[in-house]
Each structure stands twice: as C-alpha cells, then as structure tokens.
Amino acid sequence: MEGTPRPVRGRPGRRWCPVTATVPDLWECHAVIFDTDGVITDSASVHASAWKEAFDEVPGVDPPFDADEDYRRHVDGKSRLDGAAAFLAARGIDLPVGDVEDTPGTETVCQVAARKEEAFMRRLSERGVDVFAGTVRLLNKLHEAGVPCAAVSSSRHARDLLARAGVRSLLGTVVDGNDMARLDLPGKPDPALFLEGVRRLGCEPSTAAVVEDALAGVEAGSRGGFGLVVGVNRAETEDAAHDLSEHGADLVVDDLARLVRR
C-alpha cells in the first residue's frame, strides 16, 4: 500500500469471467469496496420477498412484482424510496411521494416503502441472516494480505447485518443508509456511497475495486471511476451476466471464491 498509487487494470475490456477463472486484477488494488446485500450477506432474497409483499398490496400492479427479475432490474441496490418509485413507474403507477414518516400503506410511495420495511424486519427476525461463504473466504484472504476493505449499503440495517454475520472485523469501515441520510448522499447508480467508502480508506477510486451484484451498483462503480468493477452474478445466468457487463462490470463471476489467490 506504500508508494504512489497506480491504476489497476480492468477498463476498457469488459468481459464475462467463467467461474473457473482466477482473476489477479483484484489483488493489485489498494482497497476493495463491497456491496452488502447479495454480495456479503444473503439478505437480497429477504429484501425481494419483502418488496413482493408490499407491491402485491398496491392496486393496479399488473403483472405482479417478480421477486427475481423485477427485484434485479428495479429495486436492487437502491434506497427504499428510489426502489419503490422505480418499480411503480415501470408499471405505470403514479403515486404521490408522501412523507418519510408515513406509516405502512399503499397510497404514497413512502407508505409502500414503509410496508416493505415492516415486512423485511419481520422476515429478518424470523430467519436471521446468512453469508456467502465465497465472499467470506475472499474477505479473509484480503484481510490477511493487508488490503483494506469496506462495505456499503443503502440499508439502515447494514451494520447490524454485518455484525450478525460475523464479518464486521474484516471491514475497515461501513457506509450505510444512516450515513446516506446524515451526509445527504444520493443513492445508486450515483457513486456517492462507494466514493465515501474509498475516501474513508484513504485511497483514490482509480486504485480501488468495487464488488456488486446489482445493476445500479455496477453502474455506480463505473461512474465513480473505480479501477475495477466486479459484478457478482447471483442469478447464474448468461442474461444476468450480460446485464451486469452492460451496466459497467469489468468482469463477472458467480462466486467470489473464484477470485481468491491459490
């Protein structure tokens, strides 16, 4: 980490990385910024099912919210309000924004977002949170190699999720939804969350990597000028891999353990 920072390889050649490949680019980085939901913690499915419960109660949503495709395209990686607004707009439903203090309901965007939050917290208390073993393995190896790592999330629950998952000690800093509100940071695909994370680690974006599973997230990493943007293809389909690449991923893997140096 000493000496003059140097840009890492990656751009402009974007590529789908087969699951059997080892990609050394990550190990040239001075810092790695991880998304939380769907990258470190297996909580994206909990978010998706909570969104479905909320959207299924909104009159006029047709076709119904798909917890796989609609989640990936419209709400994954975004703040609750941005995600709710994006999906409703995609279905041609125009609700007033409302107030962030609105209670759960279906008459405003804020009420729909509040209903999702209520459903998410109920599911979290019932199911707890799992982690992706490949990500934990990579975090441990980066920690051993002295590469500082951060986690970012638009969720206000990220710190709690990471602590429950037992990986908080592997992270130099966490930027979450509470920081977004306090610092007035815009959500993804704006790169503000990632830029705040790399700033706290004392690195330049061009010498750092972003690891994301969301389309809005890889787009944010690309917009932020990061030296390497890794897309995580949790859907494990060629279409999903293509979409991640098209939105800004330099390489795409389905398991972060593939990036661990042997």
From TrEMBL:
This is HAD-IA family hydrolase. Gene3D superfamilies: HAD superfamily/HAD-like, Putative phosphatase, domain 2. PANTHER family: 6-PHOSPHOGLUCONATE PHOSPHATASE (PTHR46193), HEXITOL PHOSPHATASE B (PTHR46193:SF18). It comes from the Bacteria. Belongs to the HAD-like hydrolase superfamily. CbbY/CbbZ/Gph/YieH family. Pfam families: Hydrolase. Keywords: Carbohydrate metabolism, Hydrolase, Magnesium, Metal-binding. Coiled coil: none annotated. Its cofactor is Mg(2+). One of its GO terms (molecular function) is hydrolase activity.
